Amino acid sequence: MNETAYPDRSTRVGRFTLRQLSVVQWIGVVVAPLAWTGQHVVGYGVGQARCEVGASWGIGFDTWQLAILAAAGLLVLASEAAAVTVFLATRETNYGDGPPGDGRWGGAVPYSRLHFFATAAMFANVLFVAVILMDGLASVFDSLCVQS
Amino acid sequence: MSAAAYEERLERMWRSRPGVLGWVMTTDHKRIGLLYFWTTLVLFAAGGAEALIMRTQLIQPNQHVVGPSTYDELFTMHGLTMIFFFIIPMTTGAFGNYLLPLMLGARDMAFPRMNALSYWVFLASGIFVYTSLFLGMAPNAGWFDYVPLANAKFDPGHAIDFYCLGIIFNGISSSLTAGNFIVTILKMRAPGMSFNRMPLFCFAFLAASWGLLFALPSLSADTIFLFLDRNVGTHFFDVAKGGSTLLWQHLFWIFGHPEVYILIVPAFGIATEIIPAFTQRRVVAFPLVAVAELLVVFIGFGVWAHHMFATGMPTVTVVFFAAATAVVVIPSTIQVFAWCMTFITGNAQFKTPLLFIAGFIFMFVAGGLTGIMFLAVPFDQQVTDTYFVIAHFHYIIFGAAVFPIFGGLYFWFPKVTGRLYFELPGQISFWIIFVGTNLLFFPMHIVGLDGMLRRNYTYPSGLGWGPDNLVETIGSYITTIGIVVLLANLVVSYFRGPRAGPDPWHGATLEWTISSPPPEYNFAVIPKVSSAYANWDDADREEDRRKLAEGVMVLDQGHEQPVSSPVDGWWAEIVEMPHDSPWPIVLALAMAVVFVLLLLHLWLGMCFALAGIVLALLGWHGAEPQES
Amino acid sequence: MADYVAGGVPERLVPRTTEARNAGDAMTLAGRRRGPSVAFWGMATVVASEATLFGTFIGSYYYLRFSALHWPPPGTPEPRVVVPLVMAGVLATTSLPMQLAAIAARRARLWSARALLVWALAVQCGYLAYEIHDYVDQLHRSAPQDNAYSSIYYTLLGADHVHVAIGILLVVWLLWKLLRGLTMYRLNAVQVIAFYWHAVNLLTLIVIGVLLSVTL
What is the pTM of this model? Predict the structure, then answer.
């Protein structure tokens, strides 16, 4: 398929414009990894602080970790919802695992790109749900300050 | 004008200077890739020699082939060489440089002179570090160089200074390469190559480049702190004055863990192009494999402290890293399943490259299984610093990095040299290497669990470790023979092999659409791309042939290259690329002078040498691209 | 022939940007270019790498701080608060002339661009001169060899000053290049060096914030 020009960003795809779909797609790709990074770094720091001498802010360790877990978890779920939305909206793009020589992955750009990112993000976000749950729950169940 | 006339015009414009000067001043990514290839081969031989001497020393208990201090230098240099001077430059410098522009439909990298600079800096850093060996003061505290052993108090002299400065110097080369790859992959793709039409090899190299860019600063900071502690008297790692010895380990492994993914992900990229060619089938689950490449590096930044489970960190800290380690396995597993399904549902032809990939999958899965075992903290604490760890990472590094490298050498040999290699010696070389490496590394699991510690120059008799070590040493010799057969095959094929056409394997990507070896300008016509398997899109390739006859998309008004938008590949501009230049090698020399003066503690001289760097940069940016 | 469409654009509409050898051409061709230049992306990777380096320095600072009972250790003076904050703020204001210079160059207003760069350079040089004086002054009272606090303090601060110095050299070079007019190369350079300075200004604010956080 030969594009004669790049589609205008206000072109409609179902209920969305291309511009909106693009924004939602990036949310689906980027928010989950950032949420986990935040949880991992802050959670590690809070755990480190728990076992060090010095002032604390009076908030319980478990409260901290569960709050971070909830925040990260909500963000990842939002991210996944975004990815699924874009995936469904661009489903007509053929992903074809056809025989060689049938070179068409189908779909003009940017529709095929949106579908590709959405597919990838859908699966990646499941992984981030897993790691966020494991990080958060492990820190609550295994929160000793003794040498491991 | 005819097609041949356009090609001749392009060839005249892109041709390098003749002779040695053409190589010294080259900015052509293919020549730079070849320079990297030969240099890394020499350094690979050095690293291999270090390994062979160690294995010979360990063949039986209480041998005296080398003494303990030499042994310390050997294992340190072996680790440094294989990681920083073989795998990284071979995958990124040789394969990446040569192939990325070809696969992206580009005529060169985004920053050709910086590419050349990366090579000359790499060469200088290799010479810098190996000088230490010839001076008898090679680094000797292990490749992770833990403090306090590496402090001035316990390791006086210049050995660790060679380590610190050599690593920073080498890191500059890799950082520049990483930046160059990222910008090339994002901006220099053929117009129309959106992200979903980019080959998986390019996803792998994008992931590895992000990894290098973000991981190397941690190592640089670490080695800067150590150099200052040793030579200026600071106290970053000095507990008595408020420092922390664990700080070294944290910073080291924040680099070190992503580094191991950086080692294997480019090799995944190689595997992921060999498989379609020899199964004649597109890779199963393309979006998942693509995102898995990126995910394994990203999540890999969060697992570093699993190298520190035995340092006494509290449980609450340790669990974060055990949890993340459990999840980082999954993207690699997705890829392995995808590749295996591609094998099964495709029409597999087990030529030599695919044999190496099959071997890679076997070894990687074996190494990965032992890797998962380490996330169980109690188990990890028992096997830390034993041969079990050495077995694990050699199965991974040799299996998941070196096997694809060897397979890739065979696979792209026809493209680079224009000749086919000899198939039977190729298969024989694979089997010898496969048997050799399993004999070499498998028994290490057993002696490791039995308690044999790493980095010891010998071991006592009566513990029953002798027979396993004997097998391992024999395995090392067999592996060496296999590698010699491989290299001999390539050398003989270079001179005597049958001529190869552009596309002996019916490969999937764009490099197979041009002649073998490729012309200087790579593509006479900027290719039309509709999928990640562009060489299989016959209609597009037919259209390109017509375009050449009509002079369309030839871009021959200068030393020209198209630039596209990063995500969707919309055509953004046409730029004039720099050509041969003396400045990269001059700047690399100026930097080398600075590092030597730092080593010798000649601080004032170093300030003058910094002026040399500024002058070289002024020369570099003196002429603008349209003026060359 | 020139109507052939690749990447969504007919060949005749794609600007050959390196051909721009005067300010007017640069303005026109940059307007037709889609997205920032390749040079900009290159600088983005440099900024990412340097930001990570500073990130590890800052991470090390806090790691050492939270391992210590007293920070700074007894006998080592706390840093002054007001003057360094004000100076960092003054440096951060140079982002304005730098960005305006990039915009002026993009609009082919060379004399404005040069004047704005000179303004930025004057403030940046003033900042660096004061900071070097202050750094040397502090060294008389406490040395990096005293303890881990001083070690990380002087290293982190010194690294920031080095990046400011490099930025000054870049602006000097840029002014020298702009003496002879504007080409696309030089327009890209103005934009890219403005970006570098935004990064350095933000970095300086963060570094000063980190070093002064001990007084909180």
Answer: 0.96
